[in-house]
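INTERNAL AUDIT FORM
Audit reference: QA-55
Scope: verify that the stored structure record matches its stored sequence.
Auditor: D.O.
Record contents follow.
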Amino acid sequence: MTPLPDGYRIVTVPLDRKDEFRAVNHLAFAFEPDEKTSEIIPDQLEWDRTAAVERPDGTLAAVHASYDFDLPVPGGEVACAGLTWVGVRPDERRRGLLTSMIDFHFARSLERGEAVSALFAAEMPIYGRFGYGSVADDVRLKIPRGARLRDVPGSAELTVRFDTADADRHTDLVHTIHTAGGAGRPGWMPRSSDAMRRGRVVDPPAWRDGGESLRIVTVHDAAGEPRAYALLRRKETWADPGARYPVHVREAVALDAAAAHRLWSFVLDLDLTVEVNTGMLPADDELLHLLVDARGAVPRFSDNLWVRLLDVPTALEARRYSSALDVVLEVTDARLPQNAGRWRLTTGDADASGFTARVTSTDDEPDLRLDVRELAAAYLGGRSLAAYARAGLVTEVAPGTLLRAATAFSWPVAPVCSWVF
């Protein structure tokens, strides 16, 4: 573990020090908490998974925490430490505190049997140097009101309800559809606690930016069962030639194409509005294919989830593969030397979920050379090993193995996490 300055040490943070913990994070992110907002938002931290760097005088200089997740991977899931609330006081930067905390996080995660770590990067350049790879992109669309959608059978038979979002009434509905709607999508992290589920639906006034209270649109089948939802708000805006309200969608999930069509048909034609701004959508979201004039929607792509392989063989065996493969990977890993070396990945039987794999240490000559960062980036099937090779970040040693490996690691469903943890 990277040594700390003299007198500094890493400590766990009990619940009775939560105010100190949060104060460091607020300093790091230039965030001034609002007391009323804090009362409304559920405490989502798992306090047995928090830690901090303590200064010689007993005050906290840096903090971090993690969540206990099961990360959906191609054809399966793997135990995952969701790294969060990482912050260093501005007057304690450039002293190795972050590096020490990351080393501590890796060690503690491995002790828990968590083969991977995942996070959302507040600043993109930071986490690559610790071996995290960007595994997914999300897309956010600005769509003009009235944008036409292609017809989908069954959409007209579905009904829509529009209501004010209420955490007591809607948390379970949102959680149920969110879980079912993302089934089979790598990276679609489950909201694993009651606090996380409720936190997605709460609506502190400080979050509204002058807009209305959070609304919820739900789509129902003939039996009244919900098939889709969107959490959104409109903002009253008047200008020539009249009402110019924007619609901001926090989150939208549908169980099938008909429900998605009915949901977006409603959202895209609300009275007084001029445009709809979606939340984070998968790069292959059905809305992108339903739009008759996709050019009329302005997309903004952004990096989404980042993943770090902490236990390479366990992580690689946890997922399925799209085709048969027998390849020796020579992996470098500057922070976790137990991952470095040559690993033979051999696929076994195939079923509806894909090919299983066995990963063993070997002295055989390598077929591909790559860093753990690029291996992590390709892990959920949304990044191409062949593309990294063209960028000089993966080296093909044995001719022909790159294409086979890139095909096997690929996955037909684009990875994404629909919410920032």
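Auditor finding: record pair retrieved intact. The mean pLDDT is 97.
Action required: none
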